Amino acid sequence: MHVEKVSGATMATSFDVRQLITEQTVSQGLIFAIGTGNWIIGRFGMHRKGVSQVLSRFSYIYMLGMLTRVNSQFEKTRKVGGVRSLVGSQWGVLCPSETPEGEGCGLVKNLALLAHITTPSDDKEHRSLVKSLGAEDIQCVDLSKLGKTYMVLVNGSLVAATDKPAPLVRAIRHLRRKGYGSPFVSVYLENRHRCVYIATDGGRLCRPYIIVENGKPKVTTQHIQELSNEKIIFQDFVDRGLVEYLDVNEENLSLVAVSEFEVTPSHTHMEIEPYTILGVVAGLIPFPHHNQFPRNTYQCAMGKQAMGVIGLNQRMRIDSLQYNIVYPMKPMVKSRTIDLINFEQLPAGQNAIVAVMSYSGYDIEDAIVLNQASVDRGYGRCIVYKNEVIQLRSYDKGLCDRIDGPLVDKVTREPDRRHVILGKDGIFEPGSRIQQGNVLVNKKVPLASSLNLSLSEAHLARYQDVPVSYKHDVESFAEQVLLSSHRNYNALCLQVAFARTSVYEYYPTDPTWGLQHCGKCNSEIRLEKLGDVFCTGKTFEPIQVKIVVLEYKVAKIFPHKGF
């Protein structure tokens, strides 16, 4: 009845589903849901926000941080501390430091460096494996024995019962280490529930551990040497039964040693590296164990904001907004995580020579003063890329938008002042200097009266000028032009990239503004030997002095030692 009301069909007419669902209904619905992250189905009362997010490529580290982000569905406005706290089950799978400030604190987390999200695997082989190892089928179990036996559950389904749960668990783990089934299968014994749980489903967080037997790690120096010589890879450690993945449930029933010196005969596993409990962004912090814990959280938020190289193909990309630093540098003081994520191939930021000194009140609180000589050499210089999409639509009867060449003066044969950057095809030349008011594309569209012409009269159509001009007041340079088309939209798209070089500066006229802005020294201060940045000693809080001095010492001593 509801369908008849919507479609207008009656008993006398045939039902046509094409009147309800067009070719674009499903496609446009998915595009809207994925693009905005809002999945709304009014019929079922489903209103979910943030299901999908647009991946930001502000920097390489920012992208990695978004790819490892874990969002909670808990209401962020609720002032509840329990769900925001760190719990023991998050050890090694969620970063303890990287979380936003404010209402999302503790609710938005990030995966640790070695965390792995499982994918579902077939559980039929484990259902039959349990029975072949001596467990009795649940359908054949005597009801009088249910209170004395242990239940075996595979992905939450009751499969069998056994009187010897410990040997069953040891046998399944032994087969897993020998390569039987997926290496991400979890099996653990819960005595309080009198159950043996086996999990092969997806979405579980797990991480690798080195197996310890008889008080000795199975990974030896010889294995590490073979890995360094690229004779084996990490997957070989898993295939040989030297390393295995444990999820949260199985990890809680294991005794894990943090280092090799702590291994005892009672330990079952050992950490690969202690610093792997941190995430990708927190792993960039040098000497994080010397910092006050909230300082590491603050640095995780600020470290992702450093401009740098977003990708090796950044000159070929046309993003809506892209920031690139002109002279990125490798950090002089780095952690091992930097080598693991190839940060030095896509660096961000610059090494600055910091002079701890005061200068005329512009360095109040945490404000800094830039050396004009360093700015002239390119310190802090960046390139901002922006794009603009120009569509050329097609209409009925063969009409479409067109691009004409530049307007030329009939006497001087020189192009119009607004068309000086246009080529013969009516599109601006890459590499040209663009100023406000310059025409980028000399576009023309057919008049409304011309749309009513017949197919034989299409050549008589009249067009009006609709030039696409550069409207920004900041001078830019044309980087590249990309021509593309889309059959569903019946349009030809020109995607244009603009580039402008700048140094982000503030020019306060009152020294007291240093509390709010970054002060820039005037041109008379050119101190070639003192440093790139000046800041007062009050910038560093007493709790930060230790780590700041330690990092500065390492950055100064290692280059002299040849490291």
What does this entry look like structurally?
By secondary structure, the protein is of the alpha+beta class. The protein has five domains: 2-48, no CATH class; 124-199, Hypothetical Protein Ta0175, Chain: A, domain 2 (Alpha-Beta Complex), CATH 3.90.1070.20; 205-271, no CATH class; 292-381 and 508-557, Beta Barrel (Dna-directed Rna Polymerase Ii 140kd Polypeptide, Chain: B, Domain 6), CATH 2.40.270.10; 387-498, RNA polymerase II, Rpb2 subunit, wall domain (OB fold (Dihydrolipoamide Acetyltransferase, E2P), Beta Barrel). The chain is 19% helix and 22% strand. Strands 5, 11, 12, 13, 14 and 15 form a six-stranded mixed β-sheet that branches. It has a five-stranded mixed β-sheet with strand order 6-8-7-10-9, covered by helices on one side. The longest helix is centred in the last third of the chain and has 17 residues, at 545-561. Residues 504-525 have low confidence and may be disordered.
Can you give me a brief rundown of this structure?
This protein is an alpha+beta fold.
Describe how the helices and strands are arranged:
Blueprint: H1 2-7, H2 25-36, E1 39-41, E2 46-48, H3 60-67, E3 69-71, E4 108-110, E5 116-117, H4 124-132, E6 136-137, E7 150-154, E8 157-162, H5 165-177, E9 186-190, E10 195-199, E11 205-213, E12 216-217, H6 221-228, H7 234-239, E13 243-247, H8 248-252, E14 256-257, E15 269-270, H9 293-303, E16 321-325, H10 336-340, E17 354-356, E18 369-370, H11 372-376, E19 382-393, E20 402-403, E21 433-434, E22 439-441, E23 443-446, E24 463-465, E25 468-469, E26 476-486, E27 491-502, E28 519-520, E29 533-535, H12 545-561
Parallel strand pairs: 7-10, 14-15, 17-29, 18-28
Antiparallel strand pairs: 1-2, 3-4, 5-11, 6-8, 7-8, 9-10, 11-12, 11-13, 11-15, 16-19, 18-29, 19-27, 20-23, 21-26, 22-25, 23-24, 26-27
